Amino acid sequence: MSQPRGPLSQLRRGHEELVLGLLRKHGPLSRGELGKRCGLSRTTLYDILAELVASGAVVTATSQEAPRGRGRPAETLTLNPDAGQAIGIDFARRALHVAAVNLAHEVVGSASEPHDADLPWEERVELAARLVGSLTGSGAGALRLGALDAIGVGVVGVVGSQAAEEDPTVPHPAQVLLRERFGVPVLLDNNTRLAALGEAIWGAAAGGQDVLYLRLSHGVGGGLVVGGSLHRGAYGLSGEFGHITVEPGGAPCDCGGTGCLETVASIRAVLDAFRAAGGRAADVPELVKAVRAGDQAALTLLSGVGARIGEVLAALCNAIGPSVIVIGGELAETGAALVEPVERALHDHVMPVSRHRVSLRRATLGEVAGALGGIALVLHESPLLSRYPGGPDLAEDPIPDKESR
Amino acid sequence: MSQPRGPLSQLRRGHEELVLGLLRKHGPLSRGELGKRCGLSRTTLYDILAELVASGAVVTATSQEAPRGRGRPAETLTLNPDAGQAIGIDFARRALHVAAVNLAHEVVGSASEPHDADLPWEERVELAARLVGSLTGSGAGALRLGALDAIGVGVVGVVGSQAAEEDPTVPHPAQVLLRERFGVPVLLDNNTRLAALGEAIWGAAAGGQDVLYLRLSHGVGGGLVVGGSLHRGAYGLSGEFGHITVEPGGAPCDCGGTGCLETVASIRAVLDAFRAAGGRAADVPELVKAVRAGDQAALTLLSGVGARIGEVLAALCNAIGPSVIVIGGELAETGAALVEPVERALHDHVMPVSRHRVSLRRATLGEVAGALGGIALVLHESPLLSRYPGGPDLAEDPIPDKESR
User: Fold this and answer.
1) Number of CB atoms found within 10 A of residue B327's CB
2) Which residues cross the membrane (chains A, B) (predicted)?
3) Same domain membership, residue B312 and residue B215
């Protein structure tokens, strides 16, 4: 899915980074000035520049300043403000979410639309193209599809370099159809893992290098950001927190196991348990209402569910050592009634030396987290856009015209 | 502890890698030939070469071939076979282990010596220097201390970029004393984590990119190799598998918690439980004897301990998705009596889709695993020696004179 990462392609990427970084820092530069600053041979530099211009990332301009001597004004090179845009699409089970960023890594827009779970892939991609099109306005931050760099896509299920379920040589239908439609590389990952990456870059754990994200929804899953990168696991099977056993010999789970966290902490499990306890809630918003009304059965139930979640998180903290844990998904809408018991159990079961070092937070990106994570995937994998927005590089090296917005 | 890793130092490192890779692949090359192949400017290349020659990694030689035209023979550059050697030292609680590799990343020797737990740091470093000295023979693979590149050191306790227990600006005494003694950079990490890295590179999980290592010794701990790199965690607190709760409200643990895996699966815990069950074993070798003699109490005990371990490993597999789990430490000497119940519990509790994907293996490096991991740390962190031995790069790009040994 990604570009090969041998030493030579990494070197090439390093050269592109260097050139783009110089243009970010100094604004327009002539080829000669670039050559002096980057330490590359003329041949290598001109190769790199030709590719950057061909890709639309860099544009040529005639210098506005008067030439020092006689002759024609020097041609300068500058970043193309419309270039390097990236799109993220989350093909969730029953809804589609899209988001887009510009070269400055600013989110220029997002959109969502629900659909039937059995909508065919052709129609999902049509819908995605329409939503992406809705982001292309005429304002300053508008998206120009011609300048698209790549698309990062989240899908449900196992995705990885050696995917467990599918032949990795067969591309996902979303990948094939989007590549046909937009003519750019399409990077793919599991949408819950991408939500983890989104929260670690733009959301509740922004700037965190080691982040654990848990999503409590119809399924229970999550993702790990390890040392600033999305962790996939050897077979694309990481982040399956919902299938950790919490009740040996407990209820059967969709995964084929029994007593998994998902059998206790999914939306269905919680609503079923609430009804069994005499409560009335057809969906999560009704459960949230009951919680807000101080319904004792709801509070007791969530306290028990939270304790189970906290125990699992404590075990994972001892093993992995994240600085931030983010809890997302619809059930997190129950707020403190769930999160406080999680925090208590986490505190009780994490190694004492780690207490107060890990911060538990609610997710902030909502349903577009996966689409934003798709963009982050593009920014990581693309040789043209490999930096984190707001990361240490950009913080030290601000984009000159950022102030004037 | 490590070199700064900004885009520019990464680029520089990439250039050094490129030059060293060309010399590995093609043997001796002239400056002109190197220049043609590497695409760097003359200035950059000569800078890099001057540094590589000054560091002793590369040496100059006069070409043996007749010059094509008139004039003096061309000077060529070649890898220095004695250069870039790295030493690993594991300062365990009651013993010291050292190991060394040459530029070809071959282990040229290792040595161990037990000592009292309260031996002062000055004397430990003296002992280390003596053991390292014992590795310098006069054979072809002998170590020349003058060519030392760096030392990787394992110590007991929390080590990390933001170590929890210690002020990270205060270097560890081993670091200070070794730097004085050898005059080279000293890289430090937790010795159990380094054993994980050692097993992932030279040992039971050689070549594994995602490896979980569990050590069952006086303490219970381990380490994670994630995407081919040692994972430290946000506060240097990863790999604390021994402090995952397995018996809520169980026995008190040295960490301050209760019911931790360590209270069930450490050497002391197992020997105590064996005696409580009427068995007789003063130490692990006696326990191993009992197991081999078919002692039913020992087998039942280890079956229960193994089940607890397997449950913890299954939870971690669902979260992290390693391809290999390595079990080391003295208790692993009990063999199948422990490992089979671990395997059964792992199989029962890991997500069904992940079963048969993760391989459970016993550690193979024994007590020098930590010292070898220290070397791996140097190979990773050093700009001159950043490749894995036997990794895909070297496999595709063999060292020319490797055949003639």
Assistant:
1) 25
2) none
3) yes
In terms of CA atoms, which chain B residue is nearest residue A44?
B39
Domain check: are A193 and A214 in the same one? no
Same-domain status, B140 and B180 = yes
Residue B36, domain CATH: 1.10.10.10
Pair A245, B349: CB distance under 8 Å: yes
* A contact residues 180-239, partner B, Cβ 8 Å cutoff: 208-210, 224, 226-227, 229, 231-239
Q: State yes or no: pLDDT of A166 exceeds 60.
A: no
Same-domain check for residues A381 and A295: no
For A404, the token pair is: 């004037």
**Whole-angstrom distance, CA of residue B338 vs CA of residue B300:** 10
- Nearest C-alpha neighbor of A221 from the set A167, A281, A156: A156
Tell me the range of A131-140, A142-151, B26-35, B195-204 where mean pLDDT is highest. Answer: B195-204
* B321 closest CB neighbour out of A6, A235, A353: A235
Report the amino acid identity of residue A225: V
Which string of b and e fits A94-126 if b means at least 16 CB within 10 Å?
eebbbbbbbbbbebbbbbbeeeeeeeeeeebbe
Beta-bridge mates of residue A58: A79
Which of B41, B164, B165 minimises the CB distance to A39? B41
Residues B189 and B145 grouped into a single domain:
yes
Best probe of the A interface among B320, B348, B380, B396, by most A CBs < 10 A, is B320
Q: Residue A41 is nearest to which of B14, B41, B209, comparing CB atoms?
A: B41
How far is residue B326's CA from residue A268's CA, in Å, rounded to a whole number?
37
Mean per-residue pLDDT for A352-380?
91
**B295: phi > 0 → left, psi -120 to 50 → alpha, else beta; which?**
beta
Closest CA to B322 of A357, A224, A153: A224
Structural domain for B117, as ranges = 85-197+374-396
Opening angle at CA A379, ends A227 and A184, nearest 5:
140
Residues A323, A209 contacting (CB under 8 angstroms): yes
Question: Nearest Cβ partner of A210 from B18, B227, B233?
Answer: B233
Q: Is the pLDDT of residue A60 over 90?
A: no
Residue A330 has pLDDT above 70, yes or no: yes
Closest Cα in chain B to A323: B234
The answer, for B123 touching chain A at a CB cutoff of 8 Å, is no
The conformation of residue B86, written as its DSSP 8-state character, comes to E
Q: Which residue has the higher pLDDT, B359 or B395?
A: B359
Q: Please give the full DSSP string across A317-374, using - where no structure is assigned.
A: HHHH--SEEEEESGGGGGTHHHHHHHHHHHHHHS-GGGTTTSEEEE--SGGGHHHHHH
A1: pLDDT strictly greater than 70: no
Using the 8-state DSSP alphabet, how is residue B115 labeled? -
Beta carbons of A375 and A341 less than 8 angstroms apart: no
Residue B344 Cα, gap to closest chain A Cα (Å):
14
Cβ contact, residue pair A241, B318, below 8 Å: yes
- Identity of the residue in A7, A210, A393 whose CB atom sits nearest the CB atom of B234: A210
How many domains does one find in chain B?
3
Q: Which of A263, A318, A396 to substitute to test the interface with B, most B CBs within 10 Å?
A: A318
Residues A192 and A222 in one domain: no
What radius of gyration, in Å, describes the C-alpha atoms of chain B?
Answer: 24
